[in-house]
Design brief:
Layout lengths: L17 E3 L2 E3 L6 E5 L7 H14 L3 E5 L3 H13 L4 E4 L4 H9 L4 E4 L7 H14 L2 E7 L5 H7 L4 H16 L6 E6 L3 H14 L5 E2 L7 H17 L5 E3 L6 H14 L7 E5 L10 H11 L7 E6 L5 H5 L4 E4 L5 E6 L2 E7 L3 H31 L1
Parallel strand pairs: 3-4, 3-10, 4-5, 5-6, 6-7, 7-8, 9-10, 11-12, 12-13
Antiparallel strand pairs: 1-2, 13-14, 14-15
Helix pairs in contact: 1-2, 1-9, 2-3, 3-4, 5-6, 6-7, 7-8, 8-9
């Protein structure tokens, strides 16, 4: 048994590190969370508004589609307004990639084999190098090259990996190495197997995603199963949850996936029961209200919301703040795992919000003091 690694231990796959703007991806950098805008990129105002909401939700990198010259013309204003790096999504027209690089994109999402001759690939690489752009190779099971479909008969893990390696070679032939790769599929098994194969074949950073995953609930489940499986085994350097939902929801789900695996924490981690007849208050509505009102909290911390005393005290001992349902509309509040005081039904939600905000401020102040002490010691 001594040869078995600890059951909670996630060992990251070693990978090269690249920079997407000022955000490191791969190596020992945190796993980043991405999303993609769905406004017309040519409408810079609407796109910037959506980017701002995604930034507030915690997005590290945001992708925008650039299908036409009107989009790349608007991109310069968008990249200047954004607080996070912008990836320009390019498919077939290499000139859009050149324009996007000049407009300030931090990364170009392309498939080098789809943009034409080697000379055109060379032009894109020159533009990327000149502007400090990374490149993301985006292989998708729904748009595999015809020769690979003829060779394998259908989209399969080997076909996706071969496509990715072919695109990688095109960049390497032009001495370009600042790239990351995705091999996405809407089928969870296909995507996971393809990423596992690619992880063994290359040391570049991997961008995880289950493409066309579905709506908020179905897509969250599929993405969590697929990406969660890969992340658990150390595969993945940056993720995007692809949902038929607002892009800020993709960001929130992405962080929830990372939080559940202990890979990265942001905001409040809520531990709550599904509720039953023993509950001393309406757990479901309480949790919904708290999640909505605490979305602005960025400081990592934990909150338990349990309806009765069966599991409530035990869970509360493991969280920063906890509340357990009691009788007669009075509920026990725990601070740092210790029983502290009671709160009445009517005041409960407002009271918990204030406690969480105060705890977040306390943690932030302690972190700032520690950082200042470290700076002074170094001086």
């Amino acid at each position: 048994m001594s040869s078995v690694r600890p059951w909670r231990d996630i060992v990251r796959r070693p990978s090269r590190q690249i920079m997407v703007g000022n955000v490191p991806v791969g190596g020992d950098a945190p796993v980043t969370v991405q999303t993609m805008t769905n406004t017309p990129t040519s409408d810079a105002g609407a796109t910037i508004d959506q980017i701002r909401r995604c930034e507030e939700a915690g997005a590290d990198i945001i992708r925008v589609s650039c299908p036409d010259v009107e989009s790349t013309a608007a991109l310069k204003g968008i990249t200047r307004a954004a607080r996070v790096p912008i990836v320009a999504d390019i498919h077939f027209h290499y000139k859009r990639a050149l324009e996007a690089a000049d407009a300030g994109a931090a990364c170009l999402r392309i498939n080098p084999g789809n943009i034409g001759s080697s000379d055109r690939v060379a032009e894109v690489v020159r533009a990327a190098k000149a502007n400090g752009c990374a490149i993301r190779i985006g292989v998708n099971a729904g748009s595999l090259e015809r020769d690979l479909l003829e060779k394998y008969g259908e989209p399969c893990p080997d076909a996706l990996v071969e496509s990715a390696l072919d695109h990688i070679k095109l960049l390497q032939d032009h001495d370009f190495h600042e790239y990351k790769v995705a091999v996405k599929a809407s089928d969870v098994f296909l995507a996971v197997a393809a990423y596992q194969g690619l992880a063994e074949a290359t040391d570049c950073p991997l961008h995880l995603g289950i493409t066309e995953a579905g709506g908020l609930i179905g897509g969250t489940v599929k993405s969590s199963i697929g990406m969660g499986s890969l992340l658990w085994f150390g595969i993945g350097d940056t993720i995007r949850v692809s949902l038929s939902a607002e892009p800020e929801e993709e960001v929130r789900v992405g962080f929830e996936i990372l939080k559940s695996l202990g890979i990265r924490n942001r905001g409040v981690r809520v531990v709550s029961c599904p509720s039953c007849a023993r509950q001393g208050f309406d757990v479901i509505r309480t949790v919904q209200a708290l999640e909505e009102r605490l979305v602005h909290i960025r400081t990592p911390m934990s909150l338990s919301v349990l309806g009765c005393v069966v599991n409530g005290p035990g869970e509360a001992r493991e969280t920063d703040i906890g509340i357990t349902g009691g009788g007669n509309g009075r509920h026990m509040v725990y601070l740092s795992g210790v029983t502290d005081h009671h709160v009445e039904d009517a005041a409960m939600i407002d009271h918990i919000v204030r406690l969480v905000e105060a705890k977040a401020a306390e943690i932030e102040a302690a972190d700032a003091a520690k950082a200042q002490a470290g700076t002074q010691a170094a001086a």
